[in-house]
Design a protein that fits this description.
GO terms for molecular function: oxidoreductase activity. Residues 17-40 are annotated as: Disordered. The chain is an alpha+beta fold. The protein folds into two domains: 6-20 and 30-180, NADH Oxidase (3-Layer(aba) Sandwich), CATH 3.40.109; 183-352, NADH Oxidase (3-Layer(aba) Sandwich). It is 26% helix and 21% strand. The protein contains seven helices and 17 strands. It has helices at residues 6-16, 49-60, 133-155, 201-212, 285-292, 296-317, 330-336; strands spanning 38-40, 64-65, 73-74, 86-90, 94-97, 102-104, 115-121, 159-163, 166-170, 183-184, 225-230, 239-243, 247-252, 277-283, 321-325, 344-352, 360-361. The chain has a seven-stranded antiparallel β-sheet, with helices on one face. A six-stranded antiparallel β-sheet has the order 13-12-11-14-16-15, sandwiched between helices. Strand 4 and strand 5 form a beta hairpin. The longest helix has 23 residues, at 133-155. It is globular.
Length: 369
Amino acid sequence: MKAVPVNAEALRAAYTHGPGRVVEPGTSPRTAAPEGPRVPLTSLRGRFGAALARLLTDVATPLRWEPWNQYNDHRAYPSARAASTVDLVVEGRWLLDPVRRVLVGEGTPVIDGPVRVELVRRRDRLSPGYREFGDVLTELEVGHVAGALVEHAARLGLDARVSGLTVTVAFEGVADPAPVPLRSSGVGPRGVAADPRPLPLSVLQAVVEALDHPPAGSPVRDDLRHRLGVRNVVGVDDGWYAVDGGLRLVSPGPAVAGLQPVFGHPPGTIHVASMNLALVTTGDPAAAVASDGPDGYRALLRAAGATAQHVCTATARSGAFCRPARSTDDGPLEAMVGAPASHTLLYLLLVGRPRGTGFTYDLTPLETS
């Protein structure tokens, strides 16, 4: 039997995740707490133990719980079904238990210099019904977590650099954390529908800035293609825009409303046509695999996830919500944004102003000491 080239296997995965993929209903498996000796994050030793504890707390641990919400575990990054499909392992020895805010492993870490945080995929935490597409959701989440580590490290005066599945954090510039503004999930925590009032121009500008100037160390790539649908933004015409060093109108007209027929959720769940912004990110899997080898397609997904993380953070700071989505009819959506034939859909982000104003939380990360 003739062996299949490794790169062909990588591309086969990309094509399986595209149009025609099968996703079935299912229940996410219950996840047991990791077993072993536990070290509270507040007990980390060394000159930079407290700085690492703050970073891990800010990024990976639940910031609040909403009992009325089907997926009530809110962290600094989005996770499909709140399944948390990425584990963080410090120096290859200590597994982070984010819910209990402890590291699980023998001994107590002494943090006196740069530290490696490994991102471990946990696809098994998603329902088997996702089949191969669960790999896509997991890889996107790896990108989100990596991007969040880079963002929060910068906020703490640290330096985080991503290489593959490893984030290296250096502590020489450790400082008091920059403040985080008040943010709200609104009454519909998943951003069911946007407020009908026009979206302030500042939100659109924040999205463009996040796309054009990602933080140093992030695993973003310049071979991602972004098209931004705009609806009801103060002073900006509706239509599809290219985001490539600025904002350039490429197709005027009702762009966002056209998403409803290709979106996988009904308006009663997520009213996509009410959104103010829709960011469609595509990429070329074959080109990525040709340039980067078998991991090229996964790296493309991670880059899309990291980019989405930066956009989510920018919109939150601007008072808007950003709802990542992958429940789409990919082919028609790719055609709608004029994607090259070699490209595949990587991610869709939906942005709007929250309708509710009564549920506002101070999401300033909790102190770790």
